[in-house]
Design a protein that fits this description.
single chain; 95 residues; 0% strand; 3 helices; DUF5699; mainly alpha; membrane
């Protein structure tokens, strides 16, 4: 049991640093995604009204995917699961 704790300690440290890095990247990219989503939404509405309904809907779906409720939320959910695994590993190490 002691050997497992020695082996898991550097893994837990690396996982902690990785989650901090990922959280920082997600928070920094949030502004870019919001701006891109807003511009793409405006373009989608213009295309929807003037050009083609099908292309406008496709652009709206893409705008939703890059909005904070789309793929970035999936990344936050996955980061939460990774932090949960790290917390379980730390509980094993210190418990």
């Amino acid at each position: 049991m002691f050997l497992l704790k020695i082996l898991f300690a550097p893994v837990s440290l690396a996982l902690t640093l990785f989650t901090w890095l990922c959280a920082g990247l997600i928070s920094c990219s949030a502004f870019v995604f919001k701006l891109a989503s807003a511009l793409l939404s405006l373009l989608a509405v213009a295309v929807l009204i003037t050009y083609s309904v099908k292309n406008g809907i496709i652009l709206l779906v893409i705008a939703f995917l890059i909005s904070p409720l789309g793929l970035p939320m999936l990344a936050v959910w996955m980061l939460g699961k990774l932090q949960g695994a790290n917390a379980a590993m730390k509980n094993f190490l210190y418990g």
